[in-house]
Amino acid sequence: MTELSVDAPSEGRHDRRMSLGEHLREARRRLIIAVIGLAVGMVIAFIITDHVIKFMAIPIEIINEERGKEFAELMFTKITSGFNLRIRMALSIGLLLSAPVWLWQIWAFVMPGLTKKEIKYTVAFMSAAVPLFFAGGFVAIWVAPHVIEVMSGFVPEVGKNFLDSDYYYDFILKFILVIGVSFVLPVFMVALNIAGVLSGRTMLKGWRVAVLVAALFAAIATPAADITSMFLLAGILIVLYFAAALLSLLFDRRKRNRQIASGLDPDASAA
Fold it and tell me: Mind giving me the DSSP string for the chain?
């Protein structure tokens, strides 16, 4: 009984300790499962690339309706351009489709070494970050056609807009990633608050800087002529910032109340 009580892990850690060899075998097994999941996702993504390309080409069709049937065209300038584009799309979309598999494998490998509190914080972080990232991706998909239309409007009437397929796909993919990551930044702010690095009061004091940064980011991410998209994106980012600040203030108040209940001086600990 004494040996069990000594070896028992604290704060909910698993009681079975693995050797280095067992860790390596476990990591290899989960890596293989993740790779298989990615391969299956890539196969599915490769099959649906035609539909994705048609969806991506909607802005081109809209531009052609406004400026003339042959004004804009998606170009494949090399013999292998079509195949290369499909492989790149299969990889990026396959990563997205297989995310539940490889994310679970990472989580299942790391979880046994975490405490109950760390598991709770990690689950809360992922539960907020993943939906926000996809929300940002949805906003990017909604805004991207307007961006392409507005920028194509600067092409002279005598010219034609030939869009290289690789560049066109890179633009849309990076646009989605940038907007998606920007939506997740407030979650990192809350995580810093929980870690005691950043207080809610400090976030609120910096609201002017946050508004300026959000406006600059929206202006860079969207064309200057598309005012509606710029204000929409900036507004969403500002709302998320203030939501993170208010949530951090709530956490700060709960932390202060716990310190007072424990007989500690919260002002002294903050100093």
Answer: -HHHHHHSPSTT--SPPPPHHHHHHHHHHHHHHHHHHHHHHHHHHHHTHHHHHHHHTHHHHHHHHHH-TTSEEEE--STTHHHHHHHHHHHHHHHHHTHHHHHHHHHHHHGGGS-HHHHHHHHHHHHHHHHHHHHHHHHHHHHHHHHHHHHHTTS-TT--EEEEHHHHHHHHHHHHHHHHHHHHHHHHHHHHHHTTSS-HHHHHHTHHHHHHHHHHHHHHHS-TT-HHHHHHHHHHHHHHHHHHHHHHHHHHHHHHHHHHHTT--HHHHH-
Name the residue among 85, 86, 97 with its Cα closest to residue 39: 97
Identify the burial level of 42 via C-beta atoms within 10 angstroms of its C-beta, where 0-12 means exposed, 13-18 middle and 19 or more buried.
buried
What is the pTM for the complete model shown? 0.68
Give the other-Cβ count within 10 Å of 120's Cβ: 12
Tens of pLDDT, residue by residue over 102-155, are 888 888 877 777 678 777 877 888 888 888 888 888 888 887 777 777 777 777
The pLDDT tens digits of the residues spanning 196-208 come to 778 888 888 888 8
- Alpha carbons within 13 A on the beta-carbon side of 65: 7
Cα–Cα distances (Å) from 87 to 22, 167, 233, 270, in that order, read: 35, 15, 31, 53
Please report, for residues 38, 95, 96, 99, 169, the alpha-carbon distance to residue 43 in angstroms, rounded to integers and kept in the order given: 9, 11, 12, 14, 19
The residue type of 226 is D
